[in-house]
Amino acid sequence: MIRSELLAALADDNPDLRPEEVEQVVDIFFEELAQRLSEGGRVELRGFGAFSTRERQARQGRNPRTGEMVDVPAKRVPYFKPGKDMREKLNKN
Predict the structure, then answer these.
(1) 13-39 confidence digits (pLDDT tens)
(2) Which DSSP string do the residues of 29-68 spell out, in sequence order?
(3) Pairwise CA distance, residues 51 & 49, whole Å
């Protein structure tokens, strides 16, 4: 699902909201999620999962085109851990 499909589905489920209002709600949700993660926080959505960040150490990498060794700096990367309900839905038979 892409962002426009999400907006359309939310607009269909909430006919009392204008499309601009639905878009504003989605924008606020993602901005707050990104802001919280950038501060080193964690965002938990019960039944869905939890978003957090993990630290990656600096390392030596290799440019695949030239084979040259390059320094890759340390960085934080986003991490998602699905909740129990999400795992159960994904593994239904």
Answers:
(1) 999 999 999 999 999 999 999 999 999
(2) HHHHHHHHHHTT--EEETTTEEEEEEEE--EEEE-TTT--
(3) 7
Residue 3: Cβ-neighbour burial (10 angstroms; 0-12, 13-18, 19+): exposed
Query: How long is the chain?
Result: 93
pLDDT of residue 92: 86
Contacts of 45 (CB under 8 A, 6+ apart): 83
As given in the structure block, the two tokens for residue 65 are 């085109």
Domains of the chain: 3-91 (4.10.520.10)
Structure tokens, 16: 């009392």
C-alpha distances out from residue 67 to 58, 61, 62, Å: 19, 9, 6
pLDDT value of position 27: 96
